[in-house]
């Protein structure tokens, strides 16, 4: 019996699940301006995936990398959710940081 697929699936589920609070906290403390960090992390993880000889590690690095890319989109959407009042806004960041999310 080969458990690699199940392990990759379980780890993928965990990676994606762990990124949800990362999105919420990142938007709260830094806003969407943190998106380049996730771009660099995603590129590094995908690059490492290409260079890794172990198939399981390569798959997990790719999942991590593409989850980082997806986080960029989620940061922008999280800002909109905060604007709608679905999540709390960080009062220390000020209104000027959130005004860019309003459609104009």
Rg, alpha carbons? 16 Å
Cα distance, first to last residue?
Answer: 57 Å
Structural class call reads mainly alpha
Largest sheet: none
Could you give the order of the helices and strands? HHHH
> How many strand segments?
0
Number of domains: 1
The pLDDT mean sits at 90
How would the global form be characterised?
elongated
Given as residue ranges, the uncertain stretches (5+ residues, pLDDT < 50) are none
The amount of beta strand, in percent, is: under 5%
Give the number of helices.
4
Give the helix proportion (percent range): over 70%
List the helices and strands and how they pair.
Blueprint: H1 4-29, H2 35-51, H3 55-83, H4 95-98
Quick synopsis:
The chain has 104 residues and is mainly alpha-helical.
Report what the structure shows.
The structure is a single chain. This protein has 104 residues and is an all-alpha fold. The protein has one domain. 73% of the residues lie in helices and 0% in strands. Helix 2 runs antiparallel to helix 3. The radius of gyration is 16 Å and the shape is elongated.
Give me some keywords for this one.
104 residues, mainly alpha, 4 helices, elongated
């Amino acid at each position: 019996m080969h458990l690699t697929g199940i392990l990759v699936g379980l780890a993928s589920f965990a990676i994606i699940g762990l990124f949800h609070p990362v999105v919420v906290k990142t938007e709260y403390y830094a806003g969407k301006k943190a998106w380049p960090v996730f771009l660099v992390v995603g590129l590094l993880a995908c690059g490492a995936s290409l260079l890794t000889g172990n198939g399981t590690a390569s798959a997990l690095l790719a999942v991590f990398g593409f989850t980082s890319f997806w986080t960029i989109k989620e940061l922008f959407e999280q800002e909109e959710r905060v604007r709608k009042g679905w999540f709390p806004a960080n009062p220390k960041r000020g209104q000027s940081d959130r005004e860019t999310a309003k459609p104009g």
